Request: fold
Amino acid sequence: MFKKFEAKESIVGTNQIKNSVQRSIRTKLIDTYPNIEEYINDILPKKVNLKVVKCQDHIELISTDDEILFFKKRDGPFYPTLRLLHMYPNMLPKVQVDKGAIKFVLSGAHIMCPGLTSPGADLPEECLPTDTPVSVHAEGKINALAIGHMKMSSDDIKSINKGVGIDNVHYLNDGLWRIDL
Reply:
């Protein structure tokens, strides 16, 4: 999504978000990410000025104090940025890819099922349904290297073991990672 994202050319406009809209965003975030509820006042304080940065390709960025916190495309869900995910790592369910998949994930490729089921990879015990946002970690690394959403359920990934398992939405050193507002 952000492979060819350049801040200066991609940003269309910036608007202040009303308090009523801020409350609805907070509610959507808590509904989407139940683990965020204890941190929501740290991430989105009630008296802070939130801005929506509208970009090309129907991408919206939620920012505060020139720091981007969340993004979404069209009517999709809000995803946290990797910088925010590194501060609050338990916000999303965690999946792990093997060492062979790292260079492909960091170049923006979607995560294939064999990279999630091979030795060194790890899927959670509980079933993650389709379209669940996840943090993608690498074997032997502490912080997440990407954020994606499940293209298949984790049970299907284990049983089918073929094709794209997770769509790569945001990864280290992509256009969103390098953006400066």
About this structure: DSSP finds seven helices and ten strands in the chain. The longest strand covers residues 164-171. Helices lie at 7-10, 19-32, 40-43, 82-87, 102-105, 113-117, 154-160.
